[in-house]
Request: fold
Amino acid sequence: AQSVAQPEDQVNVAEGNPLTVKCTYSVSGNPYLFWYVQYPNRGLQFLLKYITGDNLVKGSYGFEAEFNKSQTSFHLKKPSALVSDSALYFCAVRDPGYSTLTFGKGTMLLVSP
Amino acid sequence: GAVVSQHPSRVICKSGTSVKIECRSLDFQATTMFWYRQFPKQSLMLMATSNEGSKATYEQGVEKDKFLINHASLTLSTLTVTSAHPEDSSFYICSARDRGGQETQYFGPGTRLLVL
Reply:
């Protein structure tokens, strides 16, 4: 089985400050990990992924995430938040033995001016 | 990045009618496409997985006769909501996985269905 937990329903941060959106996962094998962002009434936009290789993954719009196998985490980070980063963020995992992604419940990021 | 389109973006229909939603991968080939449903302020619920040229695999609790899926080519999948009822009103999102083996799923912009 595979599962994802996003422990925070909402994260609030001031513009210019660093942000972190947390994600932990559970899979039986080596995970494929993804972050997506969703703006209101839109589909999901791909931000970044970890498949193999360097634990620190850099993605779109200045976001990055670090794969931590011992803590089974894949937290999303950005050094300096923008108001336009305010959106709903989803973490997703796929065990290579499965054909489908499992999504977390989502974390709403609110960046205040 | 890869682009997935959906059409229509928004549809309003009367109860009892059928609605077809198209999902296309515009610049890549997708052997596998996925259909999701999303309720307000909730995560995505996988409805079915479709592979080109074969029958779709439906998730538990999803009625295959109500939600007809056709994956006719490597770039097109359709979802038909048959005899729609108000409870079928929702945001439907398709997704396609790049055949090139990059493991990434790309998502369409979604279709807002309102059944009156």
